[in-house]
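task queued by scheduler; priority normal; single chain, no ligands, no partner chains; default sampling; output format set to structure tokens
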Amino acid sequence: MSERIADWTSGEQAITFQTCGACGHVQYFRRAFCAACGAPDPREQRASGKGRVYAASLVCRAATPETRAHVPYNILLVDCAEGFRMMAHGESGLAIGDSVTASFKPFAGKLVPFFSKEA
């Protein structure tokens, strides 16, 4: 695998994705291979942080003691501008189809992507 770009999973305020050099498939979640064709070493890139809400769910019950202080919180599926879908936190009141932009906020001791409605 080529050198990794730092992103939110390592504390940086960035979202990364991969593109396959063989078939052009775009994927989120790092892998050593393309999930579509199996080609090795997909190329990593930084995402713009822009997208559109695909689904939203309000979490009203804490899954762990660490998340209890955050209840209620909104979990989203976001179709990102680069062609991949990701799950992330988001502001309350977002609806399916809303245009959103990512920032980063602390949640249960970690820095996580947080989407807000685009102005």
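post-processing summary
- The chain has a mean pLDDT of 94.
- The longest strand covers residues 50-59.
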